[in-house]
Known about the structure:
Blueprint: E1 6-10, H1 25-43, E2 51-60, E3 70-79, E4 83-92, E5 95-108, E6 113-115
Antiparallel strand pairs: 1-3, 2-5, 3-4, 4-5, 5-6
Amino acid sequence: MKLPIVETPLQVRFADIDQLGHVSNNVYLQYFDMGRLTFFQAIEDGPIPYTVVVRIEMDLLREIKMTDVVTLKTWCSHVGTKSMRMEQHLFANGECAAQGHLVLAGFDMDKRQSTALPSHWQPSNLIDNTDD
């Protein structure tokens, strides 16, 4: 199975706008969360395995306004045994407004500690999207 690049259309909400008239920087992270959920829904048939964010990095490149058409592309660039790296690019009217990456670790809810990612996500079962 090759992990897809998942595109998520986003609706800018009035509450997303700050006093400068553009989307507040903390909302960009909320958009990234929505894209991550859409990504996992695209690759899983059943319940989504638990993961926790252990690192997140984001570069803001341009402002997003209320009337902009906003989309987010999300993909997995690396999968290890216990963690995975995801890339996300946020677009406003076709121009990249933000880009970021995050590292997720598998999480065991009962033991409250990190655990291996699901076996069907393991590198031997996937084709890396790094060059896409």
